[in-house]
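ping. complex inputs:
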Amino acid sequence: MRKAEVFVTLKPVVNDPQGLTIRSGLHALGFDKVTDVRSGKYLLVTLDEPDAAKARQQVEEMARQLLANEVIEDYRITMLQGGGL
Amino acid sequence: MRTGVVVFPGTWSDRDCGHALGDVLDQPVDYVDYREQNLKGLDLVVLPGGFSYGDYLRCGAIARFTPVMEAVTAFAAQGGLVLGICNGFQILQEARLLPGALLKNASCEFRCEWVHLRVEQSNSAFTVDCRPGQVLRIPISHGEGNFFADPSALERLEQESRVVFRYCTQDGQSAPDANPNGSLHNIAGISNVRGNVLGMMPHPERACEALLGGDDGLLILQSAIHAWSRVPA
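pong. complex structure:
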């Protein structure tokens, strides 16, 4: 099995009210050096695909078609090492 | 006019839409299952509000891939009338039938309240009975209704007069105070180029009888009936 981490984040131009609220919470706790917080999603996808290149290509396709909305979001994929276990 | 109200797992406003169209406006109503691939015989398809697929991943993201949405896309391309309300609007955007996206409300709160909408243009099939500048009072009920589109898409929407409704004050001013969710340009509803597909966050079906606190929503549903009856068969 292969595992891929997919990080989905709002594009820099998109406001992130959740991030702003979390930042206020951190300020209230005394973390006054915090200048910005951006929230996002973390998805761990497990695939039954022995070929590393094909696995990566499929996850890219998943991100494009469903996992991220290109109108408002960016995504980043990390294929985990030792995925053959 | 034969109307169809689509029911996804997690839809909650289907019966309200059916009541407004069927009981109040006396049109035949079919409830259309999300697995349906055939919309033959329908003149208007409503994608109602709710939480299709539990809003998992993003509002409307999963519903967009159901068999019925393929049929809705073909139906819209043939000029059929499609009205997406609240979650239905989110689904239409995920399906790329309408541009932009609806983000979490700027307040991070779910907002359930009556708002005022200014009708921006009466060219869409859903506003033919309205006059531009008319103010409607209709409720909203959502946590993700904060309209976003990138600057070029937004400019295109404005230039093509496809902003159909804007949040406004009681006297029709689109002031920041009248914006319940942070939507860009106070946008509450938009149409496609042809004007047969409308997405809006407010719920016209919840404003269809005086008993409910108002009936301005009927103007939108009745417009669809009148627009359809003028189309040569």
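The longest strand of chain B covers residues 111-119.
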